[in-house]
Structures are given as C-alpha cells and as structure tokens.
Amino acid sequence: MFDDKALPLYEVVKRKISEAILEGFWTAGESLPGEVALAEQYNVAVGTIRRALADLTAEGMIARRRRTGTVVTGRMPQHSVRLFYQYFRLHRADGKLVRSTPRMIGIEKVPAKDAHQFELLEPGSNRMLYKIHRVRCVDEIPVMHEWIWLACSRFPRLSLDVEQFPELLYVHLLEEYGVRISAVREEVHAECADADDRKLLDIDGEQAAVLCVDAQAFDQANDLTIISKHRALSNGFKYVSEIR
Prior knowledge:
By secondary structure, this protein is of the alpha+beta class. Helices cover 22% and strands 34% of the residues.
C-alpha cells in the first residue's frame, strides 16, 4: 500500500484535486480556482499545480477553456489505481454519473459481533462500534440504503446526533482524525428485495431485485477502518467499476 510520501509532489496535489472533484467540492461544469489560488491553497509552487492539472486534463477529468478557465468535465474515473482511491458509484442506465445525497436514519453504539467487525478494533480498545444507517437519494428519490460500522475508540468525537452527522464521511475522517481512506475492497451480488428494501427504496413487487455491495475500506496504513453494506435499486441504475 502506497501513501503520499511515496508519490511525487504533483501526484499528491493531483490526487487531492481529484478527491475534491469526486467528493463534490467542484461539480461538472464548475470552474476551478486559478493556478495561483490553487498553489496557495495546496501550499505548492505554481509549476506543481500546472503539472497536476495537465495530467487531469489528459485523463479527461478537467478541461482547459479559453474564457472560463479550468472546468470540471464530469468525465471522471470511478475507480482509479493511479489515484489509489476507490468509490462506490451508481450511474443511470444511460451511463450518466449521478450524485447522491445521504439522509440519516439512525446511528447507535453496538458491540462488535463477528470476525470482520473485530478487525476494526485496536488492541486493548473496547468492543463498541458505531452502527450508521442511512439512505442515499438522487433528485430526492431514494436509490440506495446502507449500513456503516466504525470503531468508537478510534473516532471518539463522532456525533450520535443524526442532524450533526457529516454528509461526506471520508472527508470528515480526514479532516478531524487524519485518517485517509486509500483503498476499498468490494463484493457485489444481487438479491431479491426484502421488507426494508421495499420500504426504504419505495419498491413495488415481491420479486424485485437489489444490487448488494459489501465493502471494506482501508486507511493510508492499510488498516481496516470502515465496514459497510449497500443495497441499491437495480432498475434504472447500474454499478460501474473502471480501472485506468
């Protein structure tokens, strides 16, 4: 597992800009700040910014336009080995990337109960985990619900108030705890929708199918950090994995 120290500086900056785009800080059609402003933001030389932007332009994530400057294209890698970052991403059936917004259902502290969950715990820590349940919506329509588990001892300040829970969990872990999610392992399969799926995703019919993704997220030290289970609509959406 690589970390930022193993990368050239322009690759570190490129990764950070890519993450900001993938996490929605800059969206499709939006202009990035100028090179000087980005250099100040990332505390690097303008030449470093220019090299990072040139690579992102070559990969199609951004475009240089005479009047509007550097613009996010919306054509972006979903799973990029070069960025050492992985994302679970739903697309519409026509291939268009969609951005979802989370709606919290609940968060509670629960004891670890199986071997995978025990892997989240640090030696000597208590056995308690955060269990988070939320729904993701596209255009206010529920398309996926998910459960997430993290170690309470590792993230002690995580709020149990659903109104205060961060919308961008990966960003929150980085900014508040210095934990960067650097790799995700996923297992994908399909199942018939259960009662929770039908209720939370507004599914009609007993025989409807949902896409199931069981994921394990690892930090920059390759330590298991998050376990999650996602159940998504299969009608009208598809899961895309792309490696460049």
